[in-house]
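Hi team, as promised in this morning's meeting, here are the two structures we talked about. I've kept the exact order from the run log so nobody has to guess. The first one is mostly here for context; it's the second one we should focus on when we meet again. Sequence first, then the predicted structure tokens.
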Amino acid sequence: MDDEEIGKLILNSAMKIHTVLGPGLLESAYEACVAYELMKCGLEVKRQVVMPLKYDGIELDIGYRLDIFVGDRVIVEIKAAEKLLPIHTAQLLTYLRLSKRRLGFLLNFNVAHMKDGLKRVVNGF
């Protein structure tokens, strides 16, 4: 399965979860539901994956974590914020660059309509 096919499953899962649960829950609740839905689709899903920072030839474990890592290819960051901010996009883009991955998604569940909480982010390397 390529990145785009995985992306479609991520977006479909987010829409389904938002339709059932709506806004107002904690990020951890949405994270668990997204992971569950993607696993039901047969995808390999890892939650809270440690993202070390490499600096000056050493690897520093400073607490960065990917919310969801799908198929060892696509990063999903879950939010339950009033709105997505530029810093959220910058964070995901940094994770993509550090992990040398191409595609990531920001999913903000604290919206009236899930289509308003979706953001696709591509790393151009």
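And here is the second protein, the one for discussion:
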Amino acid sequence: MDELAPHARHLVDAPTFGKWTPELAERVGPEGRLVLAGVSTDCCVLSTALAAADTGAEVWVAADACAGADDASHAKALQIMDLYRPLIQVVTVAEVLASVA
């Protein structure tokens, strides 16, 4: 999203479903936060968030900057990720921007 672009230090665009790689883990670091946005919530975002949380990374999913295959799949994926609190937090773009202000 354009609102997040000035705050993004690293963008990842890869042809795989999950984007959590050793390179991304190194960029996030042990004290960093991974903020996810993208398509599709029920595939790429979900697989990346779960893999990152498995390693102990703090993950924020900007729900209003994601889209699923359909509204029901999007909502279900967000509900599943919300079960992983506090490692995964489902937030809004406004909350992300407020955290970097």
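Starting points for discussion:
The first helix runs from residue 22 to 28.
The longest strand covers residues 58-67.
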